Amino acid sequence: DLLKFIGAIVVxxxxxxxxxxxxxxxxxxxxMSGAAVLSVGMAIIAGFGICFYFGVYFSRLTNNxxxxxxGLGVDDAxxxxxEYHRAVRLADKKTATRESLLRATAEHAGLSxxxxxxxxxxxxxxxxxxxxxxxxxxxxxxxxxxxxxxxxQVTFVMACLAYDWDRSSAKRYDCCCCxxxxxxxxxxxxxxxCCFVCRTSCLKPELLAVFLxxxxxxxxxxxxxxxxxxxxxxxxxxxxxxxxxxxxxDFKLEWFLDDSGSVNQLLRLQSExxxxxxxFFVYTKDDMADYxxxxxxxxxxxxxxxxxxxxxxxxxxxxxxxxxxxxQDNAACVGSMAANGDSTPSEATPRLFTNEAKYWECMKxxxxxxxxxxxxGNVQFVSEGCNSRVQQGETDxxxxxxxxxxxxxxxxxxxxxxxxxxxxSCDITQGIKAARTSAxxxxxxxxxxxxxxxxxxxxxxxxxxxxxxxxxxFTFQFMWWEEIxxxxxxxxxxxxxxxxxxxxxVVVLIPRPRVSIFVFLAIVMSIIDVLGxxxxxxxxxxxVVTVYMLISLGLAVDYSxxxxxxxxxxxxxxxxxxxxxxxxxxxxxFNAIFSTFLAVIVLAFSTTYIFRSFFKVFFxxxxxxxxxxxxxxxxxxxxxxxxxxxxxxxKEIEIQEASGDDPEDRKEEQDHAQ
Length: 674
Hints:
Elements: H1 2-20, H2 30-53, H3 65-90, H4 98-127, H5 133-169, H6 207-220, H7 223-246, H8 262-273, E1 279-284, H9 295-307, E2 311-317, H10 319-328, H11 331-334, E3 337-338, E4 352-353, H12 356-369, E5 379-381, E6 388-390, E7 399-400, H13 401-404, H14 409-415, E8 421-422, E9 432-441, H15 449-464, E10 472-474, H16 478-509, H17 513-536, H18 543-569, H19 574-601, H20 609-640, H21 649-658, H22 667-673
Antiparallel strand pairs: 1-9, 1-10, 2-9, 3-4, 5-9, 6-7, 6-8
Helix pairs in contact: 1-2, 1-3, 1-19, 2-3, 2-5, 3-4, 3-5, 3-19, 4-5, 4-16, 4-18, 5-18, 6-19, 7-17, 7-20, 15-16, 16-17, 16-18, 17-18, 17-20, 18-19, 18-20, 19-20
């Protein structure tokens, strides 16, 4: 896991250098790329430290948080630096100060990343209300770290930008700030090449922004483009809705194991050649110590299990039933037994004892030297003297029952071969403190997660249907099957609450109903699509995938909110505002999508279910939610977002500069900036 994370960091740093920096030795932004990644590390350390201090423990799911934060932190850094570049471009070089530039940067970038960080953190913290401990701890840790990401972005990263302005204003190299360039003019929007190697003659500045505006933006905002967009996204929504309706619950403990590990290979071999249902036990407790009084109930439960479709044929070892069968073949015991109701005595319906003293006497003899010796490990008596065996004529213990429980039947028989008697202090008539009966489930009743949960509930209902006190069925796998029973309710409840909170936050922070309502629509559509297409990629509802789906809510918010926020701030007709929003923020959104993808791509080659599922969900959310943000939302806003006064002429100047033109007179630009 650590090697994967290191690999993701290296890839992200290289990408940040290419995205944030200019092809210039002074403005290469290499140091700022390192600062952006360092802020993520600071948030991880601080967030985990705070959570550990308050007792929120570390789990295997927590391993995914660094990959998540790496993508989110880089997204915020890209937005901040993009707005910083814009502020520098619009500023008067003679009067600009670092304070004025940072103030202009924070005006839009600060609010934009605050909206996304706040909604992300809120989604996680709401998810922490789940009853599943591992999921609750993950959400608390992720929510805390996301909040700290925002804090370090607007403090540490912004402070680094201030120092970067001082360095670049002094014409010092980015990689080696001890030295200055001899160039008379250093303008980040007129790169001079980097390290004497990377020239810029073939790479115009703001190439991505110009492409998104002139090619992509103009196409999707044309009449034909709008029709194509609406048809495509409607089709995607239908596919997502169908997949969401088909999504089902399933999980197996072995999914946590390495695919290439020897244990998983053994389990596959066993499944292919020796598959069988899960073994379980029915336990009775000391509230039913008087087994003599409940013989009939025990036999009724035995009969129900034999005829149940949940139990494999012949895979039922009931020590008490076997005791009754052997006793009716024992001349010393059968005289104190009578038929069970109207049934004819047989192995299926043995006689029941009618004399309590004889019942306990025959049981003691049966367990001491009869066929019942192999069941000794399944019974614990109230009298402690009955729970250990001694040799004939000896007084010390031979084999404790606790040791017998860990043995196979053959080992137990060998260990008890010389241990024929209970201790002298044994008073078996005090009753049985605890006992267990084993059985094996039918394979057909444990094929899917829902089937396993229904089987577990069916066994509980079967046992509770008899007057056996607090008797209960149990196997270790029940802990995972229990989760399957509630995980879908937990998922949909958390999704519903998060969507409601996202709606409130978007409406409050983007106080333009004609904008905020369509931002919310894009978010909801992307959530439906992400959840639905998980089904087509062989993902099921379980504790692991539920965590990742809740994460996707936050990321789905980010991409659409950035576009909606910039659309609100733009001037002109609805179509002009949509195109301006694409030019201004879509490059940052695209870089955020791509950087998040780079942060998790290393997990696509993982041999563990947890990391492969993480990659699948994040790939879907970056692709689907990202396209809803930079493609679907601008089209909808251009149709229904409304006009907002006259177009801002600064946009025309920015577009000219992005195309490589240098306006002769900047006075008009400066007046509008004022």
